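Form 7-S
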Amino acid sequence: WAEQAALLAQAARVVADFMDDAAGGVERLTLAIAKATDELLRARLLGERAEMALRLGHTERVREDLAVAIVHDVSTPAVSLARAYLAVVDRDAKAALELLSFAQGSGKLSQVQSVWALLLTGDAHVAAGELGSALAAYQRVTRLDVNNSRALEGLVRVAELDQDWEACVEYLGRRLRLPASPREYARLSYWRGRLYRDMLRREPEAYRCLKDAFDHDPGLVDAAQALRAIAMARGEWSLCAELLQRERASATEVIEQAGLLVELALVHEERLLDIEAAIGNYEEALALDPEGPVPPRALARLYALTQRYEQAREDESLNPLPAP
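Output:
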C-alpha cells in the first residue's frame, strides 16, 4: 500500500506541476492518502494536497489538510506555501512573507510552485500596503509566464490602489485576451468598463466594455444597469428596452419586477412608439402588483389610443384619478 501511495503521489506531482492541472493532482493525492497506512506518510501527503488545493482557491480544504500535517510536524516547502496562503487569507502579511522566504530559500520548489510563491508574495505585500514590492513580485511572474492571469489581476489591484487608472485598464485588457469563461470574461469587462466610466471619463470605451460584458453574461445586472444609463444618454432605446427585459428577468422581488415593467412601458410608449408593447408591460405590472407603480389611468389612455373604449372605461372606473 505504501508503494502504491508513493507512486500515486509522484503521479499527482507530475500532473499538477508539469501538466498544470492542480485539480488532477488533488484527485490523485486523494487516492494516495486513502492507501497510506502510515500516519506520518499520510500527513505528508495531506501537506502536499494542501499546496495543490491553494492553487484552486479551496481554502477550507487547505485548512483541514494543514491541521493534520502540522500536528505531525510536517515542515516541507509545500506545507510552507500552503501556510503562507492561509496567512494571506487571514491578513497576516508578516507570517506569510516569513513562510514564503523559507519555501523559496529551500531550493526544492518546482517551477510552478516558484510561480505560486511569487504570486503569494505579491498578495502578502498588497495586504501589508507595500505596493512597490507587490508590483515587483507580480511583474516577476509575468516575466516567467506572460499569460499568467492571476499575476495580471494582481497588477490591476496594485494599479487600482495606486490610482493609476491607465495601467488598470491596460492590465485588464491583457487579461481579457486570455481564455476565460463567459461569466469571468463579463466580470473583467465590467470592471474595465467601470474604470473607463468612473475614473477616466471615457464614455466610448466604457460603452464598448459594458456592452461586451452584457453580451457575454446578460444576467450580470450591474453591467446591464451601467450600460442602460449610457444607452439612454445616447438615445439607443431598443437596447434600453432589451436591457430592462434582462433586468426584469433577473429581478427576484415582485415590486422590483413591476417597477422595471413600468420603466419598460414608458420606453415602449414614449421612445419606441410601440403602444401595444407598452400596454402589455402595464398589464403585466398590474398583474404582479395591483397596488404598485403603474400610474393611475395609464392603461385607460393607451386603450383609448388603440380604440379599446370599453377597456378604457373599465380601467378609469378601477383606477380613478386621486382627488385634488
